[in-house]
Design a protein that fits this description.
The chain has about 180 residues and is an alpha/beta fold. Helix content is about 20%, strand content about 25%. Keywords: DNA-binding.
């Protein structure tokens, strides 16, 4: 299982409210996440299946075109094991019925509702450790960030209560 690096930052409890108290929160370390294209996903799929990169790319591009057509028609698309894609709209309320027209629609959004089988969990707080949808997180300490180290050792108590003390991978529960 790979580890996702997170960093601690300080912000207002209610963003934009100057009187709101300051709180600490966690976010993904910037620059860590990669963006996968259809072609890079196709290469991943080729390594685990019997389809060529070209075949997978063609199917995925056709899937996107078909999905757009279905969504534009106002329908939903359910992808088993992934979730449901659907559209919503934003329209401010008006007092008179005759003033409520399609011209009032200010935004059309594409939404996604995750399938229960895909829901991700924090491995350090999950009831089932090492589950297939569990993610492991490591808090990046200031010492590591300043030195550029990634040794997995953490001299401070920065990770107390974060479930993964000491950085690196969590200890094997079977050991």
């Amino acid at each position: 299982m790979t580890t996702v690096t997170v960093v601690r930052y300080k912000r207002r409890k209610r963003i934009g409210d100057e009187n709101s108290p300051m709180v600490f929160a966690l976010k993904l370390k910037s620059g860590e996440a990669k963006i996968y294209s259809i072609e890079s996903l196709a290469r991943e799929i080729e390594t685990i299946g019997s389809l060529s990169v070209e075949d997978v790319t063609h199917v995925m591009k056709s899937f996107v075109r078909a999905m757009k057509k279905v969504l534009v028609a106002g329908n939903k698309v359910k992808v088993d094991g992934l979730g449901i894609f659907y559209t919503t709209l934003t329209c401010p309320g008006v007092e008179m019925e005759k003033d409520c027209t399609v011209k009032n629609i200010t935004r059309v959004n594409l939404r996604f509702k995750v399938d229960n089988s895909l829901r991700l969990a924090n491995d350090s707080t999950a009831t089932t450790r090492g589950g297939e949808n569990n993610m492991m997180f490591e808090l990046l300490s200031e010492k590591k960030a300043a030195s550029g180290e990634d040794s997995g050792e953490d001299s401070g108590d920065d990770n107390k209560g974060e479930g993964n003390s000491g950085g690196g991978e969590a200890p094997d529960p079977a050991a």
